[in-house]
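Hey team,

Filing this mostly as a record. A colleague (T.K.) asked me to run one chain through the structure pipeline before their review meeting, and I want the input and output archived in the tracker in case anyone asks later how it was produced. No errors, nothing strange. Just documentation.

Input sequence:
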Amino acid sequence: MTREHPRTDRLFEIGSAYRQAKVLLSAVELGGFSELATSPLDAGDLASRIQVHGRAARDFFDALVATGLLTRDDKGRYRNTEESDFYLDRAKPTYLGASFDQYNRREYALWGSLTQSLQTGNPAAETHGQDHFGSLYNDAARFRTFVTAMTSGSLLAAQGIAHQFPWENYQTLCDVGTAQGCLPVQVAVAHPHVRAIGFDLPILRSAFEEYAVERNVADRASFVGGDFFKDPLPQADVIVLGRVLHNWDLEAKKMLLDKAYQAIRKGGAVIVYDMLIDDDRRTSTTGLLSSLNMLLWTAGGFGYTATDCTGWMRSAGFAKTMVRDLPGGNSMIIGEK
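Output structure:
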């Protein structure tokens, strides 16, 4: 009897996943989902609207159909799916496409250097002439793309925290590394009694204040400029470190939790949220890939497990910890003071 060989489908699907990813990233970059949010279009009209060459149009649009991001009716008209219409139309407040712009413009090329970083331990960003944060602040267009991407990437988690955490027991919040202020704004919208602070480098002030005005919470969400490596954190009942710890080495992670403990009022809490690695390090593909992304971008950043983080929290003085799942693949770890 001839032994049946293992199937190859899964290997080829993983090995060529960059193709599918790039189709989505290009569709977001070209604004295809936003065009289709207003009305269905045939291939010719859609190609004209988003400047896709006639040779490429049908294959590109039909690839989006095959991946479940568009539909096509019997008259050849393309439409968004419910998912793409809700999350990838730039005109909607639920738009998450800024994250994909970030992947497309900044990260996609870096992942081509993964082998080199695996062998050297050095971030690929250095060889590509990029800096995870610093160089952004000298380029207004890249800076705007970056802060909107931070909001896009945090939105689902921020909404989850706004509704899952018992904010009725707390009056004040400080979000450390706030960028545009996604989390303080979401909490302020959902809980009018909470006074929220966004803490970040002073250059982020205008982006934060514009976003707070846009969301009608400027009277309850304010910005404090500072450097969390040099300055104490603003005092608050709750301090949030969202998608911050993974950027830094172990010493910096522990330092930030120590500073949070000192700034939190008695009876308060710290919230850390991130894409965590599962404790057994076997199943969390998103968490492990996120950690490899930190290898590509930073000198010492890495992802971590819930057990890692709760251990650091207890070392900082937090007496009770708990872990809760959030939308968008994130989890939050709560430590009570």
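Quick notes for T.K.: The chain is about 50% helix and 15% strand. Residues 9-87 form a domain with the Arc Repressor Mutant, subunit A fold (CATH 1.10.10.10).
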